[in-house]
Amino acid sequence: MNALDRAKVWLGEAYDEETRNEVQNLIDNDPKLLEESFYKDLEFGTGGMRGIMGTGTNRLNKYTLGAATQGLANYLKEFHGDKELKMVIAHDVRHNSRKFMQIVADVLTANGIKVFIFDNFRPTPELSFAVRHLGCDAGIVLTASHNPPEYNGYKVYWNDGAQIVPPHDKAIIERVGAVKVEDIKFNGNPELLETLDNHVDDVFLKNCVKYGARKQKDGYKSLKIVFTPIHGTSIVSIPEALDRAGFEHVYLVEEQIKPSGDFPTVKSPNPEEPEALSMALDLAKTVEADIVIGTDPDGDRLGIAVRDLDGNLVLLNGNQTNVILTDFLLNELETKNEFQGNEFIGSTIVTSDIFLDLAKHYDIECKLGLTGFKWIGKMIREAEGKQKFVCGGEESFGFMVDDFLRDKDSVTSTLLACHIAAKAKSEGSSIYKKLIEAFIKTKCYQEDLISIVKPGISGAEEIKQMMKDWRSNPPKSFDGSPVVVLNDYKTQESKNLKTGEITPIDITASNVLIFYTEDGSKIAARPSGTEPKIKFYFSVHTELDHVDDYPATLEKLKAKIERLKAELS
């Protein structure tokens, strides 16, 4: 059916009066918005769904959420048989998140599933923790992460606290696709709904402090920390966690501590964007802070700024933050002689290859997966009883310490970053020097990315064509260096362009291309799975012998990345 025919279905009696009126208004007055709202179904992907809120099959609303939840309930009941099922739901600060959570809870309880909900918003990592802590069969968080205010979303977690992966993801997608509006049970059973007290909060924070801070608190009382939740959920967790850990000088960005789905002080509530941390940086200059931390709306990712060799505040990229945290944890195990020989770290294919180098340096394994922390969660589950997970991270400002939860965790990561900064300061060093020292152990890496936004129907087609063109006519060189290896994760093949040899890639298929040049540069192309954009990732490296050589080396690597980016502009 075309968009108009699909819209007319929503004029039927199965939909409430308000929805029918909104659809009729679109038909009568806004054909362009009608097309965008109904030209396709909002996809329930392998981790859930995310979209613009509004009326229509391609929008997030009562009926698209209802269908997703009914399909999930159908699968859980089919998978577990007669077992009494339990689920926990959390939500972020976005518009309609609380209302959407109630809709989801009603559908689940109407299907006979026991549901726990929080009394207010909570960070996503706490939802991951709560799934296992409460012994639930699954969990859901209503969030659209760092997307613009008009978005919301829905992420599904399995009983291990990690986002759903094969085979459950595809099976759930099938059940969701089979749901008709008449099948959705909207009338919840209040007797199966329980609001949690602060017990889960307390145990969650105790674990964050346990794995993020240390008993030796050298420098904790002198370290100056600036923190901003950028109007998001972590305001209820990170200040409390820092206080419990023993940090005494924590300065909050007052203009950004009020939770708001409008994110009124920023263009984008994304700690990857320098503008999102500008207020925090201004405050840091005023109070002479040592470290700045900002988190995204659902509190699973963090951006960090620290003082460089000249004492100036500089923003770290996600890879750099993760290098500091990873190297500290591995060095701590080595120093304490606690390596058992079965440890591993987790990373992703578009994240810097320095994590492979770090693993080699410490003689442990680095496992690689597709973009998204659910794949790191999958690594941990498959390694249970055989290997010890130390930490994992991805370039998009996500990191996780140990295994008490299984998703990106800005709370514990914040504590760990502050511990490293405090310890380094007490030793007359700095967290920035710790990054450079890690580069000396391996190689000096620098990364950057380009995100090209292509909204709407035409944008999706443009992105498809871009990837098609790169496959049919791949670049022969970048910055004068020949491409020697092409990894196509859609075909799951790695091709050596010098020898013609093709080797299989043992990673789940995904629409990603990665090019390696003769001089070691890495260029990746990946359409986003949650936003209307395509991302190009760049990574370059060289040898580094001394800390004092880093500024000049960094400028050379940045200049090379700019040349690489220019070739794609």
Q: What this model shows, in words?
A:
The chain has helices spanning 3-9, 17-29, 31-38, 62-80, 97-110, 124-133, 168-177, 199-212, 238-245, 278-287, 318-335, 354-361, 373-383, 410-426, 431-441, 456-472, 550-568; strands spanning 48-52, 86-91, 114-117, 138-142, 151-158, 193-195, 224-228, 249-252, 291-295, 302-307, 313-315, 343-348, 365-369, 388-394, 398-401, 444-453, 477-478, 481-488, 493-496, 502-504, 513-517, 522-527, 533-542. With 569 residues, it is an alpha/beta fold. It has 3 domains: 40-197, Alpha-D-Glucose-1,6-Bisphosphate, subunit A, domain 3 (Alpha-D-Glucose-1,6-Bisphosphate, Chain A, domain 3, 3-Layer(aba) Sandwich), CATH 3.40.120; 203-442, Alpha-D-Glucose-1,6-Bisphosphate, subunit A, domain 3 (Alpha-D-Glucose-1,6-Bisphosphate, Chain A, domain 3), CATH 3.40.120; 445-568, 2-Layer Sandwich (TATA-Binding Protein), CATH 3.30.310. The strands form 4 sheets. Strands 16, 17, 18, 19, 20, 21, 22 and 23 form an 8-stranded antiparallel β-sheet that branches. The chain has a 6-stranded mixed β-sheet with strand order 1-5-4-2-3-6, with helices on both faces. A hairpin with a 4-residue loop joins β21 and β22 (522-527). The longest helix is centred in the first third of the chain and has 19 residues, at 62-80. The chain is globular, with a radius of gyration of 24 Å. The two termini are 38 Å apart. The model has no long low-confidence stretch (mean pLDDT 95). Pfam families: PGM_PMM_I, PGM_PMM_II, PGM_PMM_III. One of its GO terms (molecular function) is magnesium ion binding. Its cofactor is Mg(2+). Residues 43-177, 220-305, 317-438 form the Alpha-D-phosphohexomutase alpha/beta/alpha domain. This is Phospho-sugar mutase.
